Amino acid sequence: xxxxPVGIINERHEPPxxxxxxxxxxxxxxxxxxxxxxxxxxHGEIGRGLRYxxxxxxxxxxxxxxxxxxxxxxxxxxxxxxxxxxATTGRVEYVGLPGLSTGASFWRGKTGFAFPRIESRVTVGExxxxxxxxxxxxxAQYAHVWLDGxxxxxxxxxxxxxxxxxxxxxxxxxxxxxxxxxxxxxxPREAAVFVRYENFDTQYRMPxxxxxxxxxxxxxxxxxxxxxxxxxxxxxxxxxVVRNQSGVIDEPNSLNIGLGWWF
Amino acid sequence: MHTDARCVxxxxxxxxxxxAALPGAAAAQERQVVEMVAERFTFTPSRLEVxxxxxxxxxxxxxxxxxxxxxxxxxxxxxPKRRQGEAVVLFEADVPGVYxxxxxxxCGAGHNFMKGEIVVTAGPxxxxxx
Lengths: 263, 130
Hints:
The complex is a heterodimer of chains A (263) and B (130).
Chain A: E1 2-3, H1 26-30, E2 36-37, E3 39-47, E4 50-57, E5 87-94, E6 100-110, E7 121-133, E8 136-148, H2 150-159, E9 170-181, E10 190-205, E11 217-230, E12 233-244, E13 254-261
Antiparallel strand pairs in A: 1-2, 3-4, 4-5, 5-6, 6-7, 7-8, 8-9, 9-10, 10-11, 11-12, 12-13
Chain B: E1 8-10, H1 16-21, E2 30-39, E3 42-44, E4 47-51, E5 54-62, E6 67-71, E7 76-79, E8 87-93, E9 97-102, E10 115-121
Parallel strand pairs in B: 1-8, 2-5, 4-10
Antiparallel strand pairs in B: 2-3, 5-8, 6-7, 6-9, 9-10
């Protein structure tokens, strides 16, 4: 079982790794963390701060794709995964400068095995960066997903049991985040305040003949605090303001309190 | 309270017999200090290249939880959690070769990926590589 090596969160997806009670929206509806499946691959060092990972894995299942959550529900999660076609994925990271970690990753595979007459292929591209200087940390991530064959898939799903199927042919999202650790270092405990802006659209480009659902073109501001009584335990409080481009449907804002730990 | 207590210092001699046979082995060795970061699931830098005859002083700090630093067939130390200190390992690069190190404390799903190597060259060393 392998974790797909895309994005900042997926391979280290436990609560102390990210700010906010919930993971970034982009790491939910654009990159479907926690994304894992059966596979095999290689990893290693190129040198001068460059490292890589590349795997072959079980693919996504296009029958689970949706208009609001993109490819998220297409994860097969390893158990009894169908592997009619092999997906490929990989990541290159550069960690050669102190405090800086950057990466680029991809995932590509045929996903239409539940609909043999539909040529459904998904390509995921992603870039990210983290930078830490003293008590200030910044993160940024951009992810883009191309979905081929969604027109045919939408029509097939509508004829089956999903009359509202409206999967996009491209989805994309990004976020930028800044955090500051407010307790002096060294200290036995830590606390950080953070702010994050996210913009994510699961209807970015539509197949011919399908209309964008603007309520799924969203952005969000998330502000909060993370308190770490131990590096493996995080007590979190945040407030999320989510908006969309629809003039009719509102997104709820939320106040979140959470306790998480790495187990 | 300052908790930066250096927790472990270990000296490690590789192939003492071979080193003793080298001419000038008793001469003062060059010392190289390396600051290393351990974070799920990598060491940074994870590849060091040093010239034979160098004493490498590796200071390892964690960015998250406890990790282990195990030089295969050599020392095995615990790296304290973030902000709770550092581990220091001394490595005497007496014999050219590649020496593997790995995390020795189960730290999560990618624990088995957490590896690195020290390359001891016969000639002048290159720069540290990650």
